[in-house]
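Why do we care about 3D structure at all? Because function follows from shape, and shape follows, mostly, from sequence. That is the central idea of this module. The next example makes it concrete: a single protein chain, its amino acid sequence, and then its structure expressed as tokens.
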Amino acid sequence: MKKIYQTTFGGVDAPKEERGNCWQACVASILEVPLDEAFDCRPYWDQNDGKWFDDFNAWLKKYGLACIAMDHTEEKPLPSTAFMGYHLGEFTSRTLTNGETHICVIHNGDVVHDPNPRAKDIGDAKGIYLFVPLDPAGLTK
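And the structure:
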């Protein structure tokens, strides 16, 4: 994992090009690619059809990966240490005070990279995006 930092910080009400690119920065960090080569979900923010996640998974195929989203709620908490490796964690933002969520890199359940260089703190967990290999048998080769 190579720490890549986000370059835009606006919330959902900001123009698309100014909205925070924490997702893109975290994906770039995990895959160790330049920021501009990582998947950018910001153009999809105004859509509520889940297409962005399908497109993200299609994009991930070239890396031999897929992504599974899991929500974290009080009624159904996720055991943070159950997911080994690098993944994306979704948290309430304590840097932004508008109730929006923020993405960080987690490793074996611990936050290891917050892509916001001005981050104050990580809020409550909201979910996890698990990276899984498309061909698990290939891991042993």
